[in-house]
Amino acid sequence: MSLPSTSVLGALRSFHVVATRLSFTKAAADLCVTQGAVSQQIRLLEKHLGLKLFIRSARTLTLTGKGEALHNVMTRVFLDTEAILEELQTPDTPLQISCSPSFALHWLTPRLADFNARYPHIPVRLVAEFQDLDSDELARGRIDLAIRYDPKKYNDVAAEVLLDEFIIPVSTPSLAEKSQPLEIRNVHLLHDNEPWTGAPEYCEWNDWITENTDDYENTIGGSQFNLSSLALGSALKNQGMAMGRMALVYDDILSGRLVFPFGKPIPARARYVLICRDAADKRVNVFTNWLRTECAHFRRQRDNMLKSIPTEPQVLKNR
């Protein structure tokens, strides 16, 4: 089959805009041409096809049955064309994402399969690291996007709050049952010793105990790890009770591997921040929009879980 002539292709474009807007005047404005030029294009196309595409009246413009059929096809054609052009313009190099290790392991990695399925033309290279970032580090070009967990203000880079966080003690069901009646002074505490660079020692457990007990007199101690995921791994081995961040423990709570022995979540000092090197990069825009959607969906799931935690006061014995 021979290809349509250039004039017919141009007329099909004009037809699609007119059929979408159902107005010659609005279509002309969208196409940046005169209304007369648009009308001429439609007449050319109708003559070429030997049929009427529109029903014209003094005040309205409607599609004929065959016009509607052609419009449906052209809509798919232009959407597919736009998608392939965007794909062809997307760089082939992997999108370099630097991410806080525990968030990468427990939250981001399990969701990347969805991104890969939706956008197979955008390969991702995920690196787990937690060094501080500034404009100089980003300018070296090694990182396209970064996700950090901290309470800091970023003034010299493009950054946005991606997700807030809540912290809550977690343990295995067997540890919680074995320790009844549960007393904080008898629990071996597991710590991420530096949730972010410069974080005070024991800060997460200290914040939670301060918020939930009035007269805690014990010295906070226990085992320290350089990653929250290691503390959670230790908790899963019945070695103590860890301070869980909801983004990291949500799946284990759902599966029943971990429980909330004391309940009582509190807002964390830190939050997850998305840092961008070049907002004009198409790959960055696609991934960022997908990530925002995933975070919004998770936030609703997490908040529903938090609401389901019993609200009646629980005695937290500590002496």
Give a description of the structure.
The protein is an alpha/beta fold and 319 residues long. Helix content is 46%, strand content 17%. The protein is built from eleven helices and twelve strands. β3 (95-99), α5 (101-118) and β4 form a beta-alpha-beta unit. α1 packs across α2, α1 packs across α4 (65-89) and α5 crosses α10 (246-255). It is elongated, with a radius of gyration of 29 Å. It starts with 5 loop residues before the first helix and ends in a 12-residue tail after the last helix.
CATH topology of the largest domain: D-Maltodextrin-Binding Protein, domain 2
The largest pleated sheet is described as: 5 strands, mixed
What average pLDDT do the residues reach?
88
Please name the CATH architecture of the largest domain.
Answer: 3-Layer(aba) Sandwich
Tell the overall outline. elongated
Q: CATH-wise, what's the superfamily of the largest domain?
A: Periplasmic binding protein-like II
Beta-strand content estimate: 15-25%
**Helix/strand order, N-terminal first:** HHHEEHEHEHEEEHEHEHEHEEH
Termini Cα gap: 87 Å
Spatially, the strands of the biggest sheet line up as 4-3-5-12-6
Number of helices: 11
Protein name: LysR family transcriptional regulator
InterPro entries: LysR-type_TF_proteobact-type, LysR_HTH_N, LysR_subst-bd, WH-like_DNA-bd_sf, WH_DNA-bd_sf
Family: Belongs to the LysR transcriptional regulatory family.
Pfam families: HTH_1, LysR_substrate
